[in-house]
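Agenda item 2: iron/sulfur cluster complex prediction
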Amino acid sequence: MSVKIGNAPFHNRVQDGIENDFMRKAVSSAQGRFRSGRRNAAEELGDWEDWRTLGEEIRSHTLENIDFYLEKLSDAVSNRGGNVYFAQTAEEANQYIQDIVKRKEAKKIVKSKSMVTEEIGLNAALEEVGGEVVETDLGEWILQLDEDPPSHIVTPALHKDKGQIRETFSKKKGYEKTDDPEELALFAREQLREDFLSADVGITGCNFAVAESGAITLVTNEGNARLATALPDTQISVMGMERLVPTWEDLEVMVSLLTRAAVGQKLTSYVTSLTGTRLEGEVDGPEEFHLVILDNGRSKILGTEFQAALHCIRCAACINVCPVYRHVGGHAYGSIYPGPIGAVLTPLLDGYDDHKELPYASSLCAACTEACPVKIPLHEMLIRHRQIIVERENKAPKMEKLMMKGYAKWASSPAAYKLSTKVAKPGLKPWTEEETISNGPGPLKGWTNARDFPAPSKQSFRSWYKSRRKREESE
Amino acid sequence: MTIKKRERFLENLASNLGRPRVQKVERPQYSVSPQQNVYRGYSMDDLMDVLEKQCKAIHTDFINTDTTNLGKILLDTIEGYNGNAIITANDPRFQKYGIEDLFDSLRQDGKEVHVWNSEKGKDNQVFAESADVGITFSDITLAESGTVTLFNDKNNGRSISLLPKTYIALIPKETIVPRMTQAAQIIQKAYKEGHAVPSCISFITGPSNSADIEMNLIVGVHGPIKVTYIAF
Ligand code: SF4
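Presented output:
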């Protein structure tokens, strides 16, 4: 079990993405909206850079002492009547959860959106033991009905249009109304209410756990996570081991950063902080609560130069500014974690073998690093990945080798080179968008299909290339 | 309750960090604290203005009134929501502000007003599910984000602000603070003093919504579709 989705080679996945016109438009307009939302929210705060610094400091401190804080968290949860299970692998986590479902003879399980349960393939594991699993986040429900993987970590069904969604609803659920988004959502509300009311188990992820008091905090907008934790008698929350903060005061800073960076909201509609089981006399909330804390490859990253990748709070800001993501879409990454953070994290969690192309799916423009609310040096990590792949593992992806060979040939013929550098600026104009070339002619074409090629600057190509190399070397 | 497989897990983390397990960690002094500066020095009226403005951004109706007119405004709002079935928290503040009388008169008009009763168990949820309006007080109100904070307990079930189609939050002025920072401080202090943290703390910011279909904002998904805040 892993973060990997599908077996299609990288090249084909990229091609599929590029040929999917609706997806590209949807992604590009979503990126625009996400970006301006984040910018406005950041501007309003005034001292956004201080916020980022604070976010980074809190994350660094937490990860440096993660064993201590996890111990505290598990004690606190247990003191409040919860059970804690430390799972080294996806299999262990799934096994533990399967056992609960079997013991409870649970028939229906409602889930609120969680990337970590996608990561471990929990739905398949639950179905194995006869549980009916219902994804209740609107986007996830659409994908579940259509048996499609997510393409974005905040809005998972970003690649689908409302016509397709209407189709899916009518085919799978007998929906008869229009493709008006409000009507579609109302239908989902009615259908899923039944599921919430009859569910035996509710499963959630966890945005942040507070080590000190044992509170599991869920940051959502639709209300499905509240329903999934208020109504069923058993609640299981699964968290990546790094998703914790020391205290409530740290929590509020991280939540503020998350909601602003993710969607430009000051807070999402619901920030719900759950501690243990329901207390005596309470009607809502679970009588049985389990917290599953998952490693699944994360601990290998601790103590390495990539440790800061564990600071990620899954806000998707880096994805929303990424020019490569804009062109290829989420599925091209072949991982449930797409975009720059996916390109950094996926090879770390799942090895280079299947994902050696990912660090190359970047133009190294550094927009991701600038957007990241906890200052993870994403593009520098991508460069390190490339160095490791090339130097130590000698696994430079075929496409890169091929294209660079072609480029070498093209550039080594002086006449051809001169001609093309001279015409480069005007010649490339029609493809130039915000200083990157998104789909160039001739030798650049295959290459730019996979990543944006920086527009030739006014300085000569050769000296630009030289100084760029130097810059990379000095990093 | 049980904690399973903890030791090997934590040992592995410590060893990857290249040190023995740590027994004591002081929370460091961070180099900056921008969260403390937001709306510093704002008066109650200033914060009220912030809150009112923010409500527009979160698709929430906002009414600023006083204790004398609270009942009438609440009644108007309930009527505006076609409220025939109403569920409320079991909160002494309803008595304190004279709202219980309003509920009695609604009952006489043939409306159903259900006060959360922990002895009735799941029946509370059943009523809430078909209710038109849920009403609670806000325990802490965050001006910046337009958020009401509820300490849910046996008298204030989570369902009240969640299952009905509409939700009304009553906001006593003295509950208004600049932002989540102050709420976190209050909760942390209570925890340190040995009070049990509520099993559920709900920070609610307007109606439920989603951007999952083509990134269009849809107001009203699984939680309430319409929300009104009444400050007094
Ligand atoms: S790497 Fe940074 S920007 Fe990207 S999802 Fe994680 S926290 Fe957000």
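Discussion summary: The first helix of chain A runs from residue 10 to 19.
Owner for follow-up: CH.
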